[in-house]
């Protein structure tokens, strides 16, 4: 039975999801997984996405991303837009990243094979997030075929650099005003695989913790390693700092859970027979609302002061290319119209009410949900072994997410 027009839903017998071809969807995914595209090396992937859209007359554009000071990166997002008929209707952003982590060691097959077995497609980046990106691409194509039936606009952004240190591709969208008129965003990250709690699709993730990185320099005094008592060992003091930070209490949030701290790297001691007089320490800090840059920095300084070390210690937050380029935490209201529409369409398509949860880590959604203050929902296909060997995505989920995004967009923007 079709839903009424006053609910803003198209006739259930003629949904955009009906236009999505599962076989063609997985063929596209297989093609894109076979393209090597670690972060900052996405040119071939961007061309493939651009060409796929252009072949369907969807008028893609390259959107330049440049950051010369820290990373030296130059690349291109791919952006396309479907214009609605009512300038007062909402605008929906569909966001997915084209890059992967660097290919990890240990695969027992070609890490870009795109092999399909038992409903799983394997390859580095298959789950994070070429599966989700393909869901958005085919949903966008299905929506374009509505041919003027949308009141609101849809902006598709396939971005670079999400797996890199700063999320430069999506942040450039904000800098250049591409997101200025956006009223809601769907990011097709693999939510179930990286949610706070173990869950299966259908699932809607309505927020994420934020993140900072401490860069700590410890300076001691050199001495001959046969008489360590004559020096001040910077490596030992850095280890004490790492341990103290690891044990430090973090704030918590009712939806996002607790913040967390993870020491990542200690470097020091170049001389084979000398007490190290310098050491650097990198520490990851996941945060929840209320834990600002100033608070996070002050807490670390207090921890160091309480240790009464002989070394001198400098604690900073990692340098960023732009002053407000931070992965801030955010939460999207469960009662937002986009969330309600996703929930309704999910239940209609799957027969199951979607789970509500929150993302454990950081990503481009932080730029959208926190910095741009856009109500942002993460909905993507499930899989496993994200950032690891044997990474795979569930092919049925790729199709399901495409259908969900297409029907939700049509309903919300009608």
Give a structural overview:
The structure is a single chain. The protein has 414 residues and is α+β, with helices and mostly antiparallel strands. The chain folds into two domains: 5-209 and 329-412, Zn peptidases (Aminopeptidase, 3-Layer(aba) Sandwich); 211-317, Alpha-Beta Plaits (2-Layer Sandwich). The protein is built from nine helices and 19 strands. It has helices at 22-33, 43-55, 126-144, 168-175, 234-246, 293-307, 337-350, 364-371, 395-412, and strands at 61-67, 73-82, 92-97, 116-117, 120-122, 154-159, 184-187, 203-208, 210-219, 252-253, 257-258, 260-268, 278-287, 312-317, 330-331, 355-359, 376-378, 383-384, 392-394. It has a six-stranded mixed sheet with strand order 1-2-6-3-7-17, sandwiched between helices. Strands 4-5-19-18 form a four-stranded antiparallel sheet. Strands 12-13-9-14 form a four-stranded antiparallel sheet, covered by helices on one side. A hairpin with a 5-residue loop joins strand 1 (61-67) and strand 2 (73-82). Helix 1 (22-33) packs across helix 3 (126-144), helix 5 crosses helix 6 and helix 7 packs across helix 9. The protein is elongated. The two termini are 19 Å apart. This is Probable succinyl-diaminopimelate desuccinylase. InterPro entries: ArgE/DapE (IPR010182), ArgE/DapE_CS (IPR001261), Bact_exopeptidase_dim_dom (IPR036264), Peptidase_M20 (IPR002933), Peptidase_M20_dimer (IPR011650), Peptidase_M20A (IPR050072). Belongs to the peptidase M20A family. It catalyses: N-succinyl-(2S,6S)-2,6-diaminopimelate + H2O = (2S,6S)-2,6-diaminopimelate + succinate. Residues 207-309 form the Peptidase M20 dimerisation domain.
């Amino acid at each position: 039975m079709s839903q009424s027009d006053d609910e803003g839903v198209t006739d259930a017998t003629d949904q955009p999801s009906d236009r999505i071809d599962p076989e063609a969807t997985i063929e596209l995914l297989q093609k894109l997984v076979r393209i090597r595209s670690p972060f900052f090396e996405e040119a071939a992937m961007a061309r493939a996405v651009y060409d796929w859209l252009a072949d369907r007359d969807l008028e893609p554009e390259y959107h330049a991303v440049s950051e010369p000071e820290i990373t030296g990166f130059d690349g291109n997002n791919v952006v396309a837009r479907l214009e609605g008929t009512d300038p007062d209707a909402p605008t929906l952003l569909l966001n997915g990243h084209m890059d992967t982590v660097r290919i990890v060691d240990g695969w027992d097959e070609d890490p870009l094979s795109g092999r399909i077995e038992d409903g799983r497609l394997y390859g580095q980046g298959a789950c994070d997030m070429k599966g989700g990106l393909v869901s958005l691409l085919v949903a966008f194509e299905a929506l374009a075929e509505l041919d003027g039936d949308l009141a609101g606009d849809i902006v598709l952004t396939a971005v670079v650099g999400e797996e890199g240190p700063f999320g430069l591709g999506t942040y450039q969208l904000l800098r250049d005003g591409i997101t200025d008129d956006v009223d809601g965003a769907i990011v097709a990250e693999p939510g179930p695989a990286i949610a706070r709690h173990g869950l299966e699709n259908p699932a809607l993730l309505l927020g994420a913790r934020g993140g900072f990185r401490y860069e700590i320099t410890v300076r001691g005094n050199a001495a001959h390693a046969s008489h360590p008592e004559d020096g001040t060992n910077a490596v030992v003091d850095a280890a004490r700092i790492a341990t103290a930070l690891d044990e430090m209490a973090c704030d918590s949030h009712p939806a996002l859970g607790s913040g967390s701290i993870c020491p990542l790297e200690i470097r020091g001691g170049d001389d084979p027979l000398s007490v190290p007089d310098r050491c650097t320490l990198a520490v990851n800090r996941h945060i929840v609302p209320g834990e600002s840059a100033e608070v996070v920095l002050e807490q670390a300084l207090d921890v160091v002061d309480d240790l009464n070390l002989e070394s001198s210690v400098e604690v900073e937050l990692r340098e960023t290319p732009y002053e407000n380029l931070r992965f801030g935490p955010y939460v999207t209201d469960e009662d937002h119209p986009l969330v309600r529409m996703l929930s309704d369409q999910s239940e209609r398509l799957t027969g199951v009410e979607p789970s509500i949860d929150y993302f454990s880590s950081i990503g481009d959604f932080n730029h959208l949900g926190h910095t741009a203050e856009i109500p942002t929902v993460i909905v993507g296909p499930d899989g496993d072994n994200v950032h690891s060997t044997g990474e795979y995505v569930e092919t049925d989920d790729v199709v399901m997410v495409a259908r969900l995004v297409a029907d939700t967009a049509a309903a919300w923007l009608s």
